[in-house]
Write a structure and sequence with these properties.
Strand content: 15-25%
Order of helices and strands: EHEEEEEEHHHEHHEEHEEEEHHEEHH
Radius of gyration: 21 Å
Helix content: 25-40%
Number of strands: 16
Structural class: alpha+beta
Distance between the termini: 38 Å
Length: 385
């Protein structure tokens, strides 16, 4: 992006709060993060806020991105990337780690660095490692910049499905059977790791779901019907994360619920149901984002089931010390009991994503949802709280 097109620092007071929308990142969910950012940027009230789009490339370089949400959409079944939204392959932007100085500085070779003004709040819409897992949140804490969503610990817990389940169990929340294959274990003795998974399958039955322990958007997940597909599924998961989670098949209905932080505390949305997707073996990446599988909102549950689901969703939010927003995913088993599968501390936020759809049905429109999240972040201090 050439310097003449840079946003200028506001010189007059009072000014509108400046929101830096940070997106992209180094994870395999880079493209979906760009799509999410486009939807958020389109929804932000420009009469109320200034917007500074900051992209993070797949290599980890921070760049000033074009404020053109329409270019940040899935086209011809392909997701966009940050490189497509910046004019310069050499420019960078830097956020100060001095809490007394929230300025963003733009630099490109051969030019004097240019201050773009202070950032009042960051809206990080990164998914997966290096963004949703507490790493970016730690940087923002060091910088003293408020941000949307959960803090360092809860973001890390929400990203690592093993420790998420351990936390839920410690709070008495129902989780399904699982096993973990750690990187050192698989490198040292894959046969022993494989044997342990076979024993797990003998107890809980095939098929199994093999997935990255720290990932999202259903990437890297394989449904394995027998031993012959196990090694290939583990290697597929390890392409995304060296730590692998193995889960038993939970029969029942897939139900989701959104949690949103209001001034008086977290509240749950109406739930949604993800029906079986005939063209897909399970609710995978393409079903979610490419083929736009439709969820049922609100889910056809009894009043008592809805109340119990909402209670569990808020309990999961509190158990992991979350802030801002969470999407909690459950299975309603054939025996009528709910089992929590996982939470997402920065759930999909595209126009077809379930989290905004659930809140829309609850009475909070997409622009209102974005504004509530920004306002919650502006109220919340950084640091210990």
């Amino acid at each position: 992006m050439s310097s003449e097109n840079l946003p200028q620092s506001p010189d007059q007071e009072p000014r509108k709060p400046r929101v830096a929308v940070v997106f992209g990142g180094r994870s395999s969910e880079h493209g979906i993060s760009v799509v999410t950012a486009g939807a958020v940027m389109r929804a932000i009230d420009r009469e109320k806020y200034d917007v500074l789009p900051i992209g993070i490339t797949l290599e980890g370089r921070w760049v000033l991105a074009a404020d053109e949400p329409d270019r940040m959409a899935i086209t011809e079944r392909k997701v966009p990337n940050v490189e497509q939204l910046t004019d310069s392959s050499d420019s960078t932007v830097v956020l100060s780690v001095d809490p007394a100085n929230r300025e963003v500085v733009y630099s490109e070779p051969g030019s004097v660095p240019k201050a773009l003004g202070e950032v009042d709040v960051v809206f990080p819409v990164l998914h997966g490692p290096y963004g949703e897992d507490g790493t970016l949140q730690g940087l923002l804490e060091l910088s003293g910049v408020p941000y949307v969503g959960s803090g360092v610990l809860s973001s890390a817990v929400g990203q690592d499905k093993e420790y998420m389940k351990r936390v839920f169990l410690s709070f008495g929340l129902p989780v399904g059977p699982y096993e973990v294959i750690r990187p050192r274990e698989w490198a040292a003795d894959p046969s022993a790791a494989r044997a342990r998974i076979v024993d797990f399958a003998a107890e809980h039955g095939w098929p199994l779901f093999v997935k990255p322990a720290r990932g999202g958007s259903s990437m890297g997940i394989t449904k394995v019907g027998d031993l012959s597909g196990l090694d290939e599924a583990i290697e597929e998961a390890r392409r995304h994360d060296p730590k692998v989670l193995v889960e038993s098949l939970l029969t029942g209905r897939e139900i989701e619920c959104g949690v949103l932080e209001f001034e008086d505390g977290p509240r749950a949305s109406v739930p949604a149901e993800i029906p079986p997707v005939s063209a897909h073996d399970f609710y995978d990446f393409e079903a979610k984002y490419i083929d736009s599988a439709a969820g049922i909102v609100p889910a056809p549950l009894t009043e008592a089931q809805t109340a119990e689901l909402q209670r569990l969703a808020v309990a999961a939010f509190d158990a992991a010390s979350c802030e801002g927003l969470v999407r909690a995913d459950f299975f309603l088993q054939d025996n009528g009991e709910f089992v929590i599968n996982e939470i997402n501390t920065m759930p999909g936020f595209t126009p077809i994503s379930m989290y905004p759809r659930m809140w829309q049905e609850t009475g909070v429109s997409y622009p209102e949802l974005v504004d509530l999240l920004i306002q919650a972040a502006l109220r919340r201090p950084t640091g210990l709280r």
